[in-house]
TrEMBL record:
<protein>
    <recommendedName>
        <fullName>Glycosyl transferase family 1 domain-containing protein</fullName>
    </recommendedName>
</protein>
<keyword id="KW-0812">Transmembrane</keyword>
<dbReference type="Pfam" id="PF00534">
    <property type="entry name" value="Glycos_transf_1"/>
</dbReference>
<feature type="domain" description="Glycosyl transferase family 1">
    <location>
        <begin position="213"/>
        <end position="373"/>
    </location>
</feature>
<dbReference type="InterPro" id="IPR001296">
    <property type="entry name" value="Glyco_trans_1"/>
</dbReference>
<dbReference type="GO" id="GO:0016757">
    <property type="term" value="F:glycosyltransferase activity"/>
</dbReference>
<keyword id="KW-1133">Transmembrane helix</keyword>
<feature type="transmembrane region" description="Helical">
    <location>
        <begin position="88"/>
        <end position="110"/>
    </location>
</feature>
<keyword id="KW-0472">Membrane</keyword>
<feature type="transmembrane region" description="Helical">
    <location>
        <begin position="58"/>
        <end position="82"/>
    </location>
</feature>
Amino acid sequence: MKPRILIVGPTPPPYIGPSVATKLILESELKNDYQIVHLETADRRSTTNIGIFDLRNIFLAFIHIFKLSAILITSSPHIVYIPICQTIVGYLRDTIFIILAKIFGARVIIHLRGGYFRKLYDTSNIFAQCIIKNSLKLVSKVIVLGESLRYIFDRLVPNQNIVVVPNGIDSNYITEEEFEKAQEVRMAKVRNDSMINKVTLSTKHYALSSRMRILFLSNLMKSKGFFDVIKAMSEVLQYTGDSELIVAGEFREQEKMKNDVMSYMDKSKLDSHVKFIGTVVGAQKRNLLLSTDIFVLPTYYRYEGQPWVIVEAMAAGLPIITTDHGCIKEMVIHGENGFLIEKQNPQQISEKIIALLKDDDLRNRMGTKSRERFLKHYTKDIFIRGLNSVFEDIYVHKLSAWVRGAHETDNSEL
């Protein structure tokens, strides 16, 4: 009989890191080796409601706790996999999940899909710290996204119980043929020849352009750094007027932020060089990545861990300009497949964009290296193998404990 695993987590929409990860797991080859049961925890409202303490989220928490209890009773999973929250209220719900799973005899694996949890613990009151510390004692394994995030659980979880499993997407999300064609187009821009009109990328949504394209793709929040990129464009355009910034994503903050951005663009005369195209998913996103030349994400978003969008940009063979935040420095090696810059520093953003625009060989070399690093470290197969290794380890230990317990019972009866 196959081991039973309960996967707790949201699925899209909305398209955010945790929901993308859950969808990948549920659709993966893991279902061939395990009986997978899923507890849906998605809030189908827009991303603006994520992390907000409101009546709807409280109601959803109670519904999820009730549904978890029902699944534990009816399915008796051997393992419960929980992606944990990085807010106190959210983690209190997760603590109830952990306790219920243990009551019903399951082994618990938690997955931290960010980099803020240590800060959450350190800044919490003694009562909350006590809850966090004691709940972690009930957990069999903790998964983090990178080696540089192990410190988060120092003195909270034994090091041998912390496992690194990086994010990963399908290696054919962008095929080798699509990547090579995209590189041809990018080099055709440099030569300014007619090849750009001959190479097709199935860009149904985004026409090829002779302009050099810089892409920002994420939720439009100040802490994601998108306003810093817009400010950097003023200086970039002094170097070359033949470039444009594509901003893809949904505004997640108050209307004032949007008004400030539009006011700055109007004052700086950036309207013809900065395009807001809204949220993109699926084929639209792929085509957008393939039709651009440089990817920029100067994030300092506090919950950031290992942005999926950087993995996608690497798959498309783009040089990356980003920050040393979360475990991004493990993805983007400074000077190899991109640049790491200071947070909230438009000057450095513009300097690195200009450096890439000026040096065609550097831009091409870094983009190729991004693609290589993606294929070596951040594919779906690597991600799923990592999870499977954790599941196997936990199940074997659970089975061994059951056998030992049965053996001890037999001996006591003798």
